[in-house]
Design a protein that fits this description.
The complex is a heterotrimer of chains A (100), B (166) and C (410).
Chain A lengths: L3 H21 L3 H26 L3 H31 L13
Chain B lengths: L2 H22 L3 H21 L3 H25 L12 H25 L14 H11 L2 H21 L5
Helix pairs in contact in B: 1-2, 2-3
Chain C lengths: L1 H9 L1 H35 L15 H11 L10 H17 L11 E3 L2 E3 L11 H22 L3 H32 L4 H8 L16 H14 L11 H4 L9 H26 L17 H18 L4 H23 L1 H30 L5 H30 L4
Antiparallel strand pairs in C: 1-2
Helix pairs in contact in C: 2-3, 2-10, 2-13, 3-10, 4-5, 4-10, 5-6, 6-7, 6-8, 6-14, 8-10, 8-14, 10-13, 11-12
Classes of the chains: A mainly alpha (100), B mainly alpha (166), C mainly alpha (410).
Chain lengths: 100, 166, 410
């Protein structure tokens, strides 16, 4: 049996790596993907705790997190497309002024 | 070293390597492929824990729809290799160890606080999908309907945002 | 020796699974090769010409010749491609297609070999999400196409890849929704359970299959599945007159062969799914009390083998006159052996019906290729979104309503 600890430590490691990716990447899409990585890490923690408690609440929450991540990805990528169209660049350092 | 522990280590290593590759790759499409590897590894871990429906939904929705969206956007926007900017090297040298320290701190805090939590054996029963659907449609029916409304709003938002200007 | 015996005994499940995987991959690759031969012959006869008929007797060695050609052709890599993704895409497509065959059950009862029960499917029969695994793999196979198109650094593959992956994503929804009717009737995602739900009344035989209540679902599923596998009439993204060759333009010998094998394996998987979900899988179409139908494999094999022998003896080339009678003789002998061994005959029944039905579906696929024109891209997308998706949703609603009424509003 794999102890629940191991899953949660793995979730923490993935979350930390997601935070590092968020802070250090310059491409907007890569930053967005690091957000998805953080959400996945949290999902793993939810399922691990659902298994250790023996009821299914954690798994249902995971389903809702996946749905919300899907909606957020759709709208976020729409915004990214608009930014790319207007600023002609996908570098976040170019998107630091309100005026074009 | 039980087989489950071995599979856990393999899948966990795969997930961590995928996450590291996400950070270290320069081209966004390689980062996207690494993220897909992470998601498939996590789906494997969910299967190991007995959460079969969540594993399938993870691959179908996350790996098969959301990441496809990412890959399409990267392909259509012709996102190239990340450009080199005069980013402060000092911030890099100071920041990465601090980030790793944050990770280690969170992991250690969780490890110390959950040492007494025992894992229940995975319930690979025929009832998982059935129980989840019972709970969704009885206790959680209000959030479920709200998420359908949320997706409708997201669809409308995405269409409005991506329209060409007239 | 003792160590070897202990090792084998202790790891028996793993070894049995590995042997099953190797056997299945080998059989599927061979079937793929002869499926290409079958397709070329049938399409040719539909078009009033002979297909391949020179390379071996009746062209039977054509797949071997094609395989050798693929191995020995030059394999250029275009300039400016993203090397990792370029090499990954065909591997991904092939690996995913072959993986989806792991959940398909070829028969119900376990075979007993050396005192060990071996089930006729790679995944254990109590896997409760068999159908969801297939949908997951269908969802992932969009990547093979999209990445292949993008990484080729050329405009035709990019357009073909984008169109093809947009088509696959659009028809995924209709595919999964059209199956929900079957799932409601079977109450499980397990493929073996879906077949057993159609065997509730063994006396009905053919009438108990899911095709009758779910005829709308079947047409939706079949159309969506043909669109998913990029076959005619939905094959605009890889049509030669339109887009050179679509997403696999820049792929040369062996990598093209991998895409090819992936497409034909997906065809086989879809045919298996259609038979499992709508046509009763391994169930016989005759009622269970007609025991004489258990001799049907022999009744087919013996005359067919005799005809092959007779036709082979009159064949034009010397090789044909030698090889074809041997093949015919082997078929007739197998038929006779089945008559003589009733135990083996019982075991053969389930896989025989399964494979016969899969063969019928593969023939329908090839038939459509020979006869139907292809959709234009906008017609294709509007068919998927504006016709198939609403029809499959209505199918789900009507099916669930009928099930609710039959169970008395409980």
């Amino acid at each position: 049996m794999v102890p629940t600890n191991y899953y949660v430590i793995l979730s923490a490691i993935l979350f930390g790596l997601g935070v590092i990716a968020f802070l250090f990447k310059r491409n907007i899409i890569s930053i967005f993907m690091s957000i998805e990585l953080m959400l996945n890490a949290v999902n793993l923690a939810f399922v691990a705790f659902s298994q250790s408690h023996g009821n299914l609440d954690g798994q249902i929450f995971v389903l809702f997190v996946i749905i919300v991540a899907a909606a957020e990805a759709a709208v976020g990528l729409g915004i990214i497309i608009l930014i790319a169209r207007n600023r002609r660049s996908l570098n976040v350092e170019r998107v630091d002024l309100l005026k074009l | 070293m039980t087989p489950q522990l071995l599979i856990f280590y393999v899948l966990a290593a795969l997930a961590v390597i995928g996450a590291l590759s996400l950070i270290l790759q320069k081209h966004p499409i390689h980062s996207a492929l690494s993220l897909i590897v992470v998601m498939v590894a996590l789906a494997g871990l969910y299967l190991l824990m007995g959460a079969e429906f969540v594993a399938a939904v993870q691959i179908i929705v996350y790996g098969g729809a959301i990441m496809v969206l990412f890959v399409f956007v990267i392909m259509l926007l012709n996102a190239g290799v990340e450009e080199h900017t005069n980013f402060s090297k000092l911030a890099g040298y100071l920041g990465v160890p601090l980030g790793l320290a944050l990770t280690a701190f969170i992991a250690a805090a969780i490890a110390r606080s959950t040492e007494t939590v025992q894992a229940a054996p995975p319930t690979l029963s025929a009832q998982t999908t059935q129980s989840i659907s019972h709970m969704i449609f009885k206790q959680f029916v209000y959030p479920f309907e709200l998420t359908s409304f949320l997706i409708l709003v997201a669809i409308m938002g995405a269409i409005v945002l991506a329209q060409r200007e007239k | 020796m003792e160590f070897l015996a202990n090792f084998l005994n202790g790891h028996a499940d793993l070894i049995i699974t590995l042997v099953k995987i190797a056997l299945l991959v080998f059989i599927v690759l061979t079937v793929n090769a002869y499926l290409t031969w079958f397709e070329r012959k049938v399409v040719a006869h539909i078009q009033s010409r002979w297909g391949p008929h020179r390379v071996g007797p009746h062209g039977l060695l054509q797949p071997a010749a094609d395989g050798l050609k693929f191995l020995f052709k030059e394999d250029p890599t275009p300039a400016g491609v993203d090397k990792f993704v370029y090499y990954l895409a065909p591997l991904l497509a092939l690996a995913l297609s072959l993986t989806s065959l792991a959940v398909i059950p070829f028969g119900p009862d376990p075979i007993t070999v050396f005192g060990r029960k071996i089930y006729l499917s790679i995944t254990p029969p109590e896997l409760n999400i068999g159908l969801l695994v297939l949908f997951a793999i269908t969802a992932l196979s969009v990547y093979g196409v999209a990445l292949a198109g993008w990484s080729s650094n050329s405009k035709y593959p990019l357009l073909g890849g984008l169109r093809s992956s947009a088509q696959m994503v659009s028809y995924e929804l209709a595919l999964t929704l059209s199956v929900v009717g079957v799932l409601l009737m079977a109450n499980s995602f397990n493929l073996s359970d879906i077949i057993r739900a159609q065997a509730r009344h063994p006396e009905w035989g053919l009438v108990g299959w899911n095709i009758w209540p779910q005829i709308v679902g079947f047409f939706c599923f079949f159309s969506a599945a043909v669109a998913e596998t990029n076959r005619v009439p939905f094959d605009l993204p890889e049509a030669e007159s339109e887009l050179v060759a679509g997403f696999h333009t820049e792929y040369a010998s062996f990598k093209f062969a991998m895409f090819f094998i992936a497409e034909y394996t997906a065809m086989i998987t879809v045919s298996c799914l259609c038979t499992i979900m709508f046509f009763g899988g391994w169930l016989s179409p005759f009622p269970a009390s007609w025991h004489f139908t258990h001799y049907l494999p022999s009744v087919i094999l013996i005359p067919f083998g005799a005809w092959v022998v007779w036709d082979g003896l009159r064949y034009e080339t010397i090789w044909g006159r030698l090889v074809l009678p041997v093949i015919g003789g082997v078929m007739a002998l197998i038929g006779l052996a089945l008559l003589g061994l009733p135990g083996v005959n019982e075991y053969i029944q389930a896989p025989f019906w399964f494979l016969a039905k899969v063969f019928v579906f593969l023939f329908v696929y090839v038939w459509m290729r020979g006869t139907l024109p292809r959709f234009r891209y906008d017609q294709l997308m509007s068919f998927g979104w504006k016709l198939l998706l609403p029809v499959s949703i209505v199918n789900v609603i009507v099916t669930s309503f009928v099930i609710l009424l039959r169970s008395g509003w409980k």
